[in-house]
Design a protein that fits this description.
This protein is mainly β. It has a single domain, classed as Porin, CATH 2.40.160. The protein is 6% helix and 60% strand. The strands form two sheets. It has an 18-stranded antiparallel sheet that branches. Strands 9-12-13-16-17 form a five-stranded antiparallel sheet, with no helix packed on it. Strand 7 and strand 8 form a beta hairpin.
Amino acid sequence: MVTMMPVRFAFLLFAFLLLASPVQAQDDAVAIAGQRQPTQVRVQPTYEQYDDGRITVSEVSTTVAAFVPVNQQLGLTFHAGFASADSEPGSLSGLTDAQVGATFSQPLGQASVVLGMGLNLPSGARSLTPEAFQTLTIISRTPYGFQVPSLGQGFGAAPSLTFAVPVSDRFVLGAGVAFQYRGSFEPLEDMIDAYDPGDELLLTGGFDVQVSDQMTLSGDVSYTSYGTDKVGDDNVFESSDKVTATAQLRQYRGFQELWVVARYRSRGRSDIVTPQGLVPEMAKTLPNQMSLLARYRFRALAQLDLAIRAEAHFFEAVPQYKIEQVFHAGVLPTLRINPRVSVPGRVLVAFGDLSGIEAGLGLSLSL
């Protein structure tokens, strides 16, 4: 039996059924399988504020990420954070869940296999007040792209398997499969029945080609299938499957790097709960999305690297999203104190259907 009030049930759908990672590639890879890397630790405080013409929302967050290479084959990762957000519905603050992971790479002749396991440890804030939960529904929306879009959820486990084989000395094909178990938890206070998000299955295929000694081109297509979300024993939502296609181009010349990313995400109509049970929604809840990103990095001074970054995000018009076009532009400086310590910064301005700013100054250690 569903035991939440209707308004709380709507909040639940918006926050945890519309949750999606911001469609943007990470600035830097943490590790490369098979290569000996130093232990890396990064602390990144960030301030973000956005206004969509109807509501203003801000967030102050700090994330901590670490990569520890045990040897050339085994690597361990850790990620956690804290966020404090504020909007018209109310304020929200707390820890995120801690995430730990491990990857193990094994050569198989000319090919290689990478086994992975990620765990989501439920250490973050849960059982929120209705006001705090409304704020969470806002910061979790994809167009905002907050550094910390969610706090506490349930226990999760995500095993993965990736296989890569070289077709030639410049062309590599790869395929992967991953499964994500998502455990139940209570996102709202005073819930009688727990919310149990559906599990996920991810299939990926891709390629990487070295166009020249200074240029690489890669692409991949992934398919994600979602299980049915439940509250107690009742089915409440079944997300549509997702298909994502990504292409990346990297070009290096001395201390200069050009990085261009294009990504398209396609979603169908999901099934939503009605008195008759789950039925296809009349209008799509989750929009298709196209994103373009370009970054040019160069050495400005002996100890200072600068990166100029521009992004464009286009969202399909759906009733739940009033934001259709968002653009970002800014600069990402990195000050190298010494070979082991650097200070990464970022200042990005958003405009279009969403206006705002993102600014941060962190600390990166290579041990």
